[in-house]
Write the C-alpha cells for this entry.
Amino acid sequence: EVQLVESGGGLVQPGGSLRLSCAASGFTFSSYSMNWVRQAPGKGLEWVSYISSSSSTIYYADSVKGRFTISRDNAKNSLYLQMNSLRDEDTAVYYCAREAGTPLAGDYWGQGTLVTVSS
Amino acid sequence: QSALTQPPSASGSPGQSVTISCTGTSSDVGGYNYVSWYQQHPGKAPKLMIYEVSKRPSGVPDRFSGSKSGNTASLTVSGLQAEDEADYYCSSYAGSNNFRGVFGGGTKLTVL
C-alpha cells in the first residue's frame, strides 16, 4: 500500500525555520518525482516545490523561492522541505504528493502537516 | 504564476449533471494537455479524479469526466450523488521555465 506520511509541522515565530519530512512507503520512491503543495486555512491549494526522481531538477513557487529548499534521500525513502525566514503567510497545511508520471498530477498524497507562523 | 480561474460554487440535485470550469491561459491550460482535477472533502487530502485533461485513475467512477477547449478545461459530474459534495480543484502544468504548475482557486460543489 502506498503511504506518504508528513511530519515536522508546528508553531514557529516569524523569521524562524522548520524542516518538514515526508516518509514514503509501498512504492519505489526513487522512481517518482515529488511535489510539496500547501493549503492555508480556509483557502485553496498552492503548489510550493517540485523535485525530480534523481534530484536533478528542482522548481519553486515565486512565493517561497530563496527561502525554502526541497530535497530528497532516496536511500531513506524520504522527501524534505527546509523552510527558512518564515512569514505569517506561510501558515498552512503542507502536503507531499507523488507525481503520477504526469506533471502536477498527484496520485497519492500524505495527510498533511500544519505549519503555523505566529508570534 | 497566476492561479487558474474557477467559479467559487456550483450545485445540482441528485441525479443531475454539473460542470465546473477552469480558465487559464495559453501558457498553461491552453498550451498543454496536462490538466488535472482533484476532489477534497473537509479535513481530508485531495484526491486525483482526472489527469491529462480526460483520463480517470483506477477506481474513479465514470460519472466524472474531463474536457478542454482552448484555455478552458471542464470537469463534469454526471448522476450527482450526495458523496460528490466537496471542493474541486483544477491544476495545470505551465512549462518547465523553473515552474511546475498552478492550481485553480477551487469550486465548492453542493448537492441539493
About this structure: Residues 12 and 117 of chain A are 5 Å apart (CA to CA).
